[in-house]
Design a protein that fits this description.
alpha+beta; 6-stranded mixed β-sheet; 4-stranded mixed β-sheet; 10 helices; binds magnesium ion
C-alpha cells in the first residue's frame, strides 16, 4: 500500500461543506470562509507511548487525534469547519488504517468538519491534525478574559480520564475506559458560551494547570472549593486525597473550564449544551490558583501533574 493508496482508500471522503472549493487531491486545499467570520486555527499532535499507551485501539487513536483539536476549537467558541491530517506510520497495515480511519471519520462527521488535505510518512506512530473553525468576527473566546468577581465553572466531571489511564497502564483492556479513549469535545457548550463567558480553556493538562493559564493570561487569581468539584461515582470511590489529586491534576478530561459574572448565572442554568455545569469557585484580585478544602484551608496535591509515561510524578 503506497501513500496515494492510503489517502484514496482511507481518507478521501466527499466534502459535505459547500465552502470547500478544492479538497483532498490537489497541491493544496481552497477554502472560502463565509464573510463576517474569523478563522480559529489549532494544531495538536498525538504520539504513541507519549499521549496514549502502546496497545491503544486504532479507533481510539483516530478519535483522540481529532478530539484534542476539536476541544481547543470548543474552548475558543469556534464551529469546526476544515482540517488536515499528517499521519506517520511504522507500517501501512490495512486493518489498522481501516480502524483508525473509522474512529477519525465518525467524530469528524458528528462535528461537521471536512478533511481537506494531509500527508502520510513512515516512522514512529504519530498523528497531527490542524483544524480550522469559524466564529463571528471578533467573537472568539479567550483565556485572558476573566475578571475579579466572576465565578469559575467546569463542565462534566473531572478525574475520570486519569482513572481510565491508570487502568489502561495497569494492563486492563479498553472496555470501560471511554473517558480516556474517546473524549467528547464540548463544542456545543463552547459555542453557547460566546458573549457569556469571561475566560475559557479546555482541560487537557488538569484543572490546576489549565485554570492557572486563565489566571495568568487574565492577570487575576482563582480560588477553588475542592468540595464542589464534580466527581463521578468511580472517582468518589477512591481515597479522598487520591480522588482530588486525579480531579485537579490528571488531565485528559477535555472538559471546559470558564469564568462568568454572577449576572450570567440564570442564562448558564438555562443552557442546554448537553453537559452539566458546576460552579467550583471564584476569580479574585491577585494571582495564582488556591485550592481550598472543606475547612477553608489551602490544599496541595501530592504532585502538580501526572506523567504516566515517564515514571509517575512530573
Ligand atoms: Mg487547549
Amino acid at each position: 500500500v503506497n501513500e496515494f493508496d492510503i489517502i484514496a482508500r482511507y481518507f478521501d471522503r466527499p466534502c459535505r461543506r459547500d465552502d470547500v472549493v478544492v479538497g483532498v487531491g490537489d497541491d493544496g486545499a481552497v477554502l472560502a470562509p463565509p464573510p463576517g467570520s474569523d478563522m480559529v486555527v489549532v494544531t495538536d499532535t498525538v504520539v504513541a507511548g507519549r499521549h496514549f499507551p502502546e496497545g491503544t485501539p486504532a479507533e481510539a487513536i483516530g478519535h483522540r487525534a481529532l478530539a484534542v483539536n476539536l476541544s481547543d476549537l470548543a474552548a475558543m467558541g469556534a464551529e469546526p469547519a476544515w482540517m488536515t491530517l499528517a499521519l506517520t506510520l511504522p507500517e501501512a497495515d490495512p486493518a489498522w488504517l481501516e480502524r483508525f480511519s473509522r474512529g477519525f471519520h465518525a467524530l469528524a462527521e458528528s462535528a461537521g468538519i471536512d478533511l481537506v488535505g494531509g500527508d502520510t510518512t513512515s516512522g514512529p506512530l504519530s498523528a497531527t491534525v490542524t483544524a480550522i473553525g469559524l466564529v463571528p468576527a471578533g467573537g472568539a473566546l479567550r483565556r485572558g478574559g476573566a475578571s475579579p468577581g466572576e465565578r469559575i465553572y467546569v463542565s462534566g466531571t473531572l478525574g475520570d480520564a486519569g482513572l481510565d489511564l491508570r487502568g489502561l497502564l495497569a494492563g486492563e483492556g479498553p472496555d470501560g475506559h471511554d473517558r480516556f479513549l474517546y473524549p467528547t469535545p464540548r463544542l456545543e457548550l463552547g459555542r453557547a458560551l460566546r458573549g457569556l463567558a469571561g475566560g475559557v480553556i479546555d482541560i487537557s493538562d488538569g484543572l490546576l494547570a489549565d485554570l492557572g493559564h486563565i489566571a495568568e493570561a487574565s492577570g487575576v487569581g482563582a480560588r477553588v472549593r475542592l468540595a464542589d468539584l464534580p466527581l463521578s461515582a468511580a472517582v468518589r470511590a477512591l481515597e479522598p486525597g487520591d480522588a482530588r489529586t486525579l480531579a485537579v491534576s490528571a488531565g485528559d478530561d477535555y472538559e471546559l473550564c470558564f469564568t462568568a459574572p454572577p449576572s450570567a448565572e440564570a442564562r448558564l442554568v438555562a443552557l442546554e449544551a448537553g453537559v452539566n455545569l458546576t460552579c467550583i469557585g471564584d476569580i479574585v484580585p491577585g494571582e495564582g490558583v488556591v485550592l481550598m478544602d472543606e475547612h477553608g484551608r489551602d490544599w496541595h496535591p501530592a504532585h502538580a501533574g501526572f506523567d504516566h509515561f515517564n515514571g509517575g510524578a512530573r
